[in-house]
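Standup notes
- HV: blocked on the assembly model, inputs below
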Amino acid sequence: MQTEPEVAVLRLGHRPGRDERITTHVGLTARALGADRVILAGQASSRADTVLDITDRFGGPFETETVESWRPIVRDWDGRVVHLTMYGLEVQEVEAEIRDAHQADRQPLLVVVGAEKVPFEVYEWADWNVAVTNQPHSEIASLAVFLDRLFEGRELDREWEDAEKVVIPQEVGKRVEAPADE
Amino acid sequence: MQTEPEVAVLRLGHRPGRDERITTHVGLTARALGADRVILAGQASSRADTVLDITDRFGGPFETETVESWRPIVRDWDGRVVHLTMYGLEVQEVEAEIRDAHQADRQPLLVVVGAEKVPFEVYEWADWNVAVTNQPHSEIASLAVFLDRLFEGRELDREWEDAEKVVIPQEVGKRVEAPADE
């Protein structure tokens, strides 16, 4: 988020046909829950338009980047790397250390989110392999819980710039407005 | 979770072809993050086998139920109903009240998770319409953050019964074992 060191989310291992909506949800979750940027690698790039469209309509700042090759991004990252995997250390055990690196040491954070069969280099290059439970579930769910815990809920209060539409919280029903001029 | 009042997740509005993997992720997220049961309504029923298979291999208790019609489930629910929607009240504003109803008043909780275009009755029948941000992102991400906050992280420590496979947390790499005999 804006005044904090960058948090970028890298989406790996997108399988065309199978992962279209999953990759879109990864991108939109990164945006909604406080990351500054999503990097869509290889065939995941096809999902960039939807994320850009939501950012146009609902605001930013949020960057959507596409790359052909993900390896240089992970290997050369100038900061710390978290890889979300059900095989990793439990999030409740390592989250404080990761928050310290991000907040106290002001390290930009790359959060790597794969599909099935993540190449072994990712496990090795990551500073932390982190499991949101050691159960098989969803990379979207893992990303969401990880970001909420990383930011300790601050992401829920972030403000959006240049939005065409703003949703006003309602007890019942839907209310969408154009933002007031400043 | 086992000693607490039931938490069930109802998946509505599944669109065949488009939502297959999303609905699977909703079911697996419900299981991994502490719900007791997922109810797959209408065409979402096609995804039950994957959730049952994961429960067989990684343990339970967790129930997977399929129903033709969701309306009686919501209308006749004996407890409280939460509907997750980007148009609702902010989760950080209402979560304490929902936790109180679930824990102190021992009310079973139904968490309704829709796709696009949820029928208006759901908004009316829900005790709380809850937004995990008022931004468009993912019903999987909303469910994950909601359950993690409902249980205040206790779901991460739950134990699994009758698992054929147990993942042992690792700093690097993967370790899967058959559980020790008791």
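- HV (later): unblocked. Chain A has a mean pLDDT of 94. The beta strands of chain A are 7-11, 37-41, 63-67, 80-90, 109-113, 128-131, 166-167, 176-177.
- Next: hand off to the docking folks.
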